[in-house]
């Protein structure tokens, strides 16, 4: 694929041959070398709530989770995850049979795909992809079938082409892999789009894996609709969540799966041989985090909204065409309005390689998230989960592009 720049790797097997190193390593090194502000990688530069951090300290001191926690996750956390899904979405899951704690959403994705896919199966996934999807599909020996989210300048968003989705499904399709709110485009799939996904899944009897790690980062009028809430979906959907993005503790690596018992058992079978268990004390802290009052979630969203608006305005002023995200903490911008010379003829790779020298800011070329690279060529991604002063400085630097 796609997500990676390849170097010669004489030992790497064929399944992973295209997955040598990620673009993030290259761009982060470039940021360091040039003293640039790194808006490439999507992690916050401040920690989450103090009381949640203290809860982890307490668990560690009290000896909770310092030894192997139970395989499915500590009961307190499984109960908290089930409670969260019930309160927010009216979805009921049995904490004992329908919830599995994983090592971040990353392990949830890996274990789910390794458990559910046979070699030769096809996975229909939304392009641009989060980078681990393609690698995990490859590790499972399956094939990915991309459906490209298309920029719609009129709606100022990337949208799902429902005919294209329908045409991508074949007799070999095992599952649909969905991500909403969507990284990197910032699209939040509408109820109408998701209803069409659900109808297709029911009609073709497909499983659906849905990555909803940005469920709490939804702005303006947009609404996060969990796929599992739609008719016919609860028992054919594996929903993936994570504490990393919602609570700004990406280093803790606490994620989860909610699904019907048969699916959870299958995912657990793979998960137990990947890591067995992890993050013991952090699991207790995340259980407390999920029970925080709405004021936490509202405040977090409001803070990110201010940051989105700050960066979106700065990018617009610098000359980019901005697709204002309805969700996530990423902005995808089109570089072409900057002009042929400044935008490196619309080549996002060349643009991101020269941006640190030109403006002291690092972004990621969206093309790395595509199989159809040409479809992603003119787009670049900026993360806005950074301190306000950092974003202000980035915006000031980017003004250099406008002359
Ligand atoms: C960050 C991210 C993940 C990984 O989450 P972890 O909990 O850190 O493993 C998965 N999916 C998407 C879309 C992400 O942006």
TrEMBL record:
<keyword id="KW-0028">Amino-acid biosynthesis</keyword>
<comment type="subunit">
    <text>Homodimer.</text>
</comment>
<comment type="pathway">
    <text>Amino-acid biosynthesis; L-lysine biosynthesis via DAP pathway; LL-2,6-diaminopimelate from (S)-tetrahydrodipicolinate (succinylase route): step 2/3.</text>
</comment>
<keyword id="KW-0808">Transferase</keyword>
<dbReference type="GO" id="GO:0009016">
    <property type="term" value="F:succinyldiaminopimelate transaminase activity"/>
</dbReference>
<protein>
    <recommendedName>
        <fullName>Probable N-succinyldiaminopimelate aminotransferase DapC</fullName>
        <ecNumber>2.6.1.17</ecNumber>
    </recommendedName>
</protein>
<dbReference type="InterPro" id="IPR004839">
    <property type="entry name" value="Aminotransferase_I/II_large"/>
</dbReference>
<keyword id="KW-0663">Pyridoxal phosphate</keyword>
<keyword id="KW-0963">Cytoplasm</keyword>
<dbReference type="GO" id="GO:0016212">
    <property type="term" value="F:kynurenine-oxoglutarate transaminase activity"/>
</dbReference>
<keyword id="KW-0032">Aminotransferase</keyword>
<dbReference type="InterPro" id="IPR015422">
    <property type="entry name" value="PyrdxlP-dep_Trfase_small"/>
</dbReference>
<dbReference type="GO" id="GO:0030170">
    <property type="term" value="F:pyridoxal phosphate binding"/>
</dbReference>
<comment type="similarity">
    <text>Belongs to the class-III pyridoxal-phosphate-dependent aminotransferase family.</text>
</comment>
<dbReference type="InterPro" id="IPR015421">
    <property type="entry name" value="PyrdxlP-dep_Trfase_major"/>
</dbReference>
<dbReference type="InterPro" id="IPR015424">
    <property type="entry name" value="PyrdxlP-dep_Trfase"/>
</dbReference>
<dbReference type="GO" id="GO:0008652">
    <property type="term" value="P:amino acid biosynthetic process"/>
</dbReference>
<comment type="function">
    <text>Involved in the lysine biosynthetic pathways. It catalyzes the transfer of an amino group from L-glutamate to N-succinyl-2-l-amino-6-oxoheptanedioate (N-succinyl-2-l-amino-6-ketopimelate) in a PLP-dependent reaction, yielding as products N-succinyl-l-2,6-diaminoheptanedioate (N-succinyl-diaminopimelate) and 2-oxoglutarate.</text>
</comment>
<dbReference type="InterPro" id="IPR051326">
    <property type="entry name" value="Kynurenine-oxoglutarate_AT"/>
</dbReference>
<dbReference type="GO" id="GO:0005737">
    <property type="term" value="C:cytoplasm"/>
</dbReference>
<feature type="domain" description="Aminotransferase class I/classII large">
    <location>
        <begin position="37"/>
        <end position="398"/>
    </location>
</feature>
<dbReference type="Pfam" id="PF00155">
    <property type="entry name" value="Aminotran_1_2"/>
</dbReference>
